[in-house]
Amino acid sequence: MKYTQLGRTGLEVSRLVLGTMNFGPQTNEADSHAIMDAALEAGVNFFDTANVYGWGENKGRTEEILGTWFAKGGERRDKVVLATKVYGNMAAEGDAWPNHHKLSALNIRRAVDASLKRLQTDHIDLYQFHHIDRATPVEEIWQAIDVLIQQGKILYAGSSNFAGWKIAQTNETAKRLGSYGLVSEQCLYNLAERRAEMEVIPAAQEYGLGVIPWSPLHGGLLGGVIRKEREGGAARSTSGRSGDALANTTVRAQIQAYEDLLEKHGLEPGEVGLAWLLTRPGVTGPISGPRTREQLDSAVRAVDLELSDEVLAALDEIFPGPGPSPEAFAW
């Protein structure tokens, strides 16, 4: 496994991030534990989750699965850089109540204690804002975060799904207050969705944030979806975002060109999608959310995959980026 520092921090993290969103909803506890053991054995030390994972009536279930894994001992917790998120409403469906979501100081205080209990740990290494909160002043958010840092409940704060200007506003406010500020941004970024290159990633680089791409295979679209159709896996491979996208003939032609290119070079689409992100400026590591051990093994192989200049150039032709701001939308 290869490692890098998370943004401007001294924290060393693996270039592959283990995403746990499927733990609970699609992968049972025993299999989830086995995947985490395998990830740790492969050198993956950066685990990402969120308080709402588990979804529906099972919100928090994913954090609980991590907690029972940590409780097994064997230095599991000490070896892991643990990241979770706050924002979503944790109340039962149809039973929403004020101050049980978003980023008020009250909800942050409640949410972190609840996450710590589910995770069976005394601290969270990276506490991320899952979404922007348009109603809560940034000053209030930093006041709450600084209290948690002083209490030893969290070490660093990060953002997710923030616009470039919001990263700037949040960190300029932190600077004015004497807070350390955001150290990471978790954003939607992959070959098929490169809008983050316009402003989000440049802002992250300017302020010393590590970029953690989520959905690196764009919901399976970049994982060999057309090949899987031919092999009889259409029921799984073309569901959700993949199925919706492939209904567009232009997108389907683009994905076909992608798969044809990689077949020519003897490369696996899913591994290339991850490996490409590792070549991008500012990227700490993509989040891979395996449902099975085989998917984890494939993601780990991507870390050592070196893409030739020829392949990289061809990928840019198939999936051209928007270019920098403002040139992407002006002169």
How would you characterize this protein structure?
It contains 14 helices and 10 strands. The chain has 331 residues and is an alpha/beta fold. The protein has an 8-stranded parallel sheet. Helix 7 links the parallel strand 8 and strand 9. The longest helix is centred in the last third of the chain and has 16 residues, at 249-264.
Q: Which structural traits does this protein have?
A:
two-stranded antiparallel ribbon, about 325 residues, globular, eight-stranded parallel sheet, 10 strands, alpha/beta
> What is Rg?
20 Å
Give the SSE order as H and E letters.
Answer: EEEHEHHEHEHEHEHEHHHHHEHH
Q: What gross morphology would you assign? A: globular
Q: Report the total helices.
A: 14
What fraction of residues sit in β-strands? 5-15%
Adjacency order of strands in the biggest sheet? 9-8-7-6-5-4-3-10
Please report the total strand number as a whole number.
10
Q: Kindly name the structural category.
A: alpha/beta
- Ends distance: 42 Å
Largest sheet: 8 strands, parallel
Spans of at least 5 consecutive residues whose pLDDT stays below 50 are none
Estimated helix fraction: 40-55%
> What is the mean predicted local confidence, pLDDT?
95
